[in-house]
TrEMBL record:
SMART domains the record matches: CPSase_sm_chain
Gene: carA
First-tier enzyme category under EC: ligase
CDD domains recorded: GATase1_CPSase (cd01744)
Protein name per Swiss-Prot or TrEMBL: Carbamoyl phosphate synthase small chain
Organism from which the protein derives: Paramicrobacterium chengjingii
Function: Small subunit of the glutamine-dependent carbamoyl phosphate synthetase (CPSase). CPSase catalyzes the formation of carbamoyl phosphate from the ammonia moiety of glutamine, carbonate, and phosphate donated by ATP, constituting the first step of 2 biosynthetic pathways, one leading to arginine and/or urea and the other to pyrimidine nucleotides. The small subunit (glutamine amidotransferase) binds and cleaves glutamine to supply the large subunit with the substrate ammonia.
Top-level taxonomic group: Bacteria
Subunit structure: Composed of two chains; the small (or glutamine) chain promotes the hydrolysis of glutamine to ammonia, which is used by the large (or ammonia) chain to synthesize carbamoyl phosphate. Tetramer of heterodimers (alpha,beta)4.
Annotated pathway: Amino-acid biosynthesis; L-arginine biosynthesis; carbamoyl phosphate from bicarbonate: step 1/1; Pyrimidine metabolism; UMP biosynthesis via de novo pathway; (S)-dihydroorotate from bicarbonate: step 1/3
Region (CPSase), start-end ranges: 1-186
Length: 395
């Protein structure tokens, strides 16, 4: 498909940061106003996967790559049923869509989902501002809201919710339990707590033989146990892990029963809390598909996909004892840019997690092996349980 978008002048718009900085540009997508935490994503590709990632709920996402939209959008690459970002910021939106897989243009998709955006601003300057001052609240104003005074716009920004202490799981999770059948030989059932799960994650679990039961975020431990799953999985998701005590309590109940666990992104932070570690907000977070991470076990550097503004507070070197009684824990991965914890491995219970997104539909795929590791752990645990039960029967 090759289409050309309008060359006519765009209505004006302004991006207002919490510190009072203003960037004037052109309206992109829907017009109006939107508020959220402004963050930057460093990937040169994968904008559609970014926009439809529920982990970005509540955030105005700015792409650091200057040219966005040239491949359009298509239904196959969507990671959920809608665009979740609060707003979208780009420097140079493509005027031409040219890709055989394209079904529509990016700006048309933004209008359809009522996503207010801005283009034509110096995104490098905004990025430097965020890196210096940290992630902050912001607003995009266009259309009628552009007539508000500078002080009125700034008051709206400063009156909006801060990400710290914010629980957003209910806004992105499924409302009902649904199931994906295992692809190929079935090895068991996995209960997936949907905290903002992506479509690719569910598909990769099913491809490894799991019957995937996707549960609403307010599900209880008893509802998990009623499924008699072979494993539990916590997904990625938006918000502050420090505001998700109920999910931590449920995870502890499942870990107490010896059920294998794998968590990614938000699920990594919640495992950290369940084990007794704290979490904290990063200055400006990690977002993009080009983040280097070291696997301490292999010494291998992986290029990975990230989307997180919080991290687990755990020592990178050595082995720690879980303050909650789950035995020994080690940091399995850490980020090479800033030494942030990027993975946890429990040595005495069947549980591990990573902070990044191994499903990485937009690439790279260095971390896909983690789904195989999860599968192998579940099979090993099942074999161990069968052996223990048989031994008990023989006594």
């Amino acid at each position: 498909m090759t289409t050309q978008t309008s060359f006519s002048p765009k209505p004006p718009a302004v991006l207002v940061l919490e510190d009072g900085t203003r960037f004037r540009g052109d309206a992109y997508g829907a017009t109006g106003s939107t508020l959220g935490e402004v963050v930057f994503a460093t990937g040169m590709t994968g904008y559609q996967e970014t926009l439809t990632d529920p982990s970005y709920a509540g955030q105005i996402v700015m792409m650091t790559a200057p040219h966005i939209g040239n491949t359009g959008v298509n239904s196959t690459d969507e990671e959920s049923s809608r665009i979740w970002v609060s707003g979208f910021v780009v420097r140079d939106p493509s005027r031409v869509v040219s890709n055989f897989r394209a079904e529509d243009s990016l700006d048309s998709e933004l209008v359809a989902d009522d996503i207010v955006g801005i283009s034509g601003i110096d995104t490098r300057a905004v990025t430097r501002r965020i890196r210096a001052g940290g992630a902050m609240r912001a607003g995009i104003f266009s259309g009628d809201t552009l007539t508000l005074t500078d002080s009125e716009q700034l008051d709206m920004v400063r009156g909006s919710a801060e990400m710290s202490g914010l629980n957003l799981s209910a806004s992105v999770s499924t409302r009902e339990h649904y199931t994906l059948p295992a692809a190929g030989e079935r090895i068991g059932a996995v209960a997936v707590l949907d905290l903002g799960v992506k479509k690719s994650t569910l598909n990769y679990l099913a491809e490894r033989g799991f019957e995937v039961h996707v549960l609403p975020q307010d599900s209880s431990a008893d509802e998990v146990f009623a499924l008699a799953p072979e494993a539990l999985f916590y997904s990625n998701g938006p918000g502050d892990p420090g505001a998700s005590d109920r999910h931590v309590d449920m995870l502890r109940s499942v870990l107490n029963e010896g059920i294998p666990y794998f968590g990614i992104c938000f699920g990594n932070q919640l495992l950290g809390r369940a084990l007794g570690f704290g979490t904290y907000k990063l200055p400006f977070g990690h977002r993009g598909i080009n983040q280097p991470v070291l696997d301490k076990g292999t010494g291998r550097v992986e290029i990975t996909s990230h989307n997180h503004g919080f991290a687990v507070d755990a020592p990178i070197e050595g082995i720690s004892d879980s303050a909650e009684g789950y035995g020994r824990v080690e940091v399995s991965h850490y980020g090479l840019n800033d030494n942030v914890v990027e993975g946890l491995n429990c040595l005495d219970i069947p549980a591990f997690s990573v902070q990044y997104h191994p499903e990485s539909a937009a690439g790279p795929h260095d971390a896909m092996y983690l789904f195989d590791r999860f599968r192998d752990m579940v099979i090993a645990q099942s074999d161990h349980t069968d052996t223990t039960n048989n031994a008990g029967e023989n006594n």
